[in-house]
UniProtKB/TrEMBL annotation:
Protein family: Belongs to the paxM FAD-dependent monooxygenase family.
Stretches that traverse the bilayer: none
Pfam families per UniProt: FAD_binding_3
Protein name: FAD-binding domain-containing protein
Residue ranges occupied by any FAD-binding domain in the UniProt entry: 3-306
Record keywords: FAD, Flavoprotein, Monooxygenase, Oxidoreductase
GO molecular function, a single term: monooxygenase activity
Keyword Transmembrane helix carried by entry: no
Keyword field contains Flavoprotein: yes
UniProt superkingdom: Eukaryota
InterPro entries with a match to the protein in the record: FAD-bd, FAD-dep_Monooxygenase_BioMet, FAD/NAD-bd_sf
Amino acid sequence: MEHHGFHVTVFEKIKHFMRLGDSLGLGENALKLLKRWGLHEQLIRIGNRSPDMHIRRWDNGRVLATQPLMDMAGYIGHRGDYHQAFLDRVAEVGIKVRMGHNVNGTKVVSFNEDKPSVTLEDGREFEADIIIGADGIKSQTRELVLGFADKPKSSGYACYRAYFKGDILRDIPQCQPIVQRDCVNIWIGPDMHLVQNTLRDGEEFNWILTHRDDEDIAESWFQPGDMNKVRELVKDWDPMIVSAVNVTPSCLDWKICYRDPISTWVSASHKVALLGDSCHAHLPTSAQGASQATESAAVLALCLKLAGKENVPLATRVYEKLRFERVRQAQLNGEDVRDRWHSCLKDLDGGKEIDPDDVKMKNRWLYAFDAEKDTLARWAEVSTIVQKELDENRITPLFDSLTGPIRELELYDAFGNRKTDSTKYVQKQQQ
Ligand SMILES: Cc1cc2nc3c(=O)[nH]c(=O)nc-3n(C[C@H](O)[C@H](O)[C@H](O)COP(=O)(O)OP(=O)(O)OC[C@H]3O[C@@H](n4cnc5c(N)ncnc54)[C@H](O)[C@@H]3O)c2cc1C
């Protein structure tokens, strides 16, 4: 937004940012945008430098497929380090971030979608031309936009997540291959997989074990996990990773929840828009949560520039139409790879070969895409459709469960090019 000349104020409810979470990936699709906004070298320095990742059998560690990391998650680094790099850049260009420690009560507690304005915990109200609800997976803005509380559903899976100093593994012979230099490995087995990566040649070490879980515990980045349960789950796995898990001091238990796609990302007044996890959270296996949030930011800002700030409704409604299908496919990719990893070795004994393509991540099509170029190319066509919808006061919903699975549309080819035009998509939605 700032890059396109808008004046931005951020309200963040917490008092101080901390180095929370563990690894996330930033793909080339996000990095090409971030480069234009003055953030590139500092981000690349953070990420894991392994050229490839290996997908291995759960029991003996045999490599089933090797894939360039740039085809998978891009640069994998600590979420807190990426976050700090973003904050440094935000400070450099002078964007105001009102944190809980500067001013009491920076939590947004209510909205007036017509002005539009936000009201903070301490009662102060701030008006703007547009309100963007980038308030994460437990978004309050989402409830305003939908008009009801949209509770998450269990995905049937949870992750145990551990992040620690690699030093404790350096003297363990079995761990040498995974702690000596930067690497990314994924062990796959029936209904489970474990992703491991290092940072700075093993200085820091991360593993994330995804397993079946139907327990109804709230989604939280702070819920401690039981290491005894983790050790029991992987006790018969490849000794290389079991040795690392066995000495891991602690972990978090993170429930993976689903949110169904929603029919609108924009409020009825068209002046409050959702962005990032508030409207399109991804499964970890999509490796695209932060990257898709970055793309959405690029598209919304450019739409506002093209529409002009006096025409926010046109901008927000074009934004959601430009973004929905691509985001949906990125989300479905995450489900597809998880299901392939969890099923392909079922009933298959250790000696049998599988086709490496059956276990590879299929994210390549996501990386070539340039969200800003795509917006410029499609603006005229989609803004004409949207203007008509606004004139007739009849906005087509983004998603309706009756229209059938979007997967059938296959909107992008392997190189990130659109296969169909937006008119067809809108027509399908209207059927
Ligand atoms: C603590 C934490 C740890 C995470 N760890 C990982 C990880 O290890 N790996 C991974 O892949 N992804 C992780 N994620 C998710 C990842 O950061 C997001 O998928 C991605 O960055 C997209 O972010 P977003 O901006 O949409 O939402 P978020 O990154 O969740 O940011 C939302 C922000 O809005 C603030 N907020 C919420 N409600 C209000 C309100 N009412 N008023 C003011 N401020 C509000 C929150 O404090 C938060 O800072 C984590 C998220 C969190 C919050």
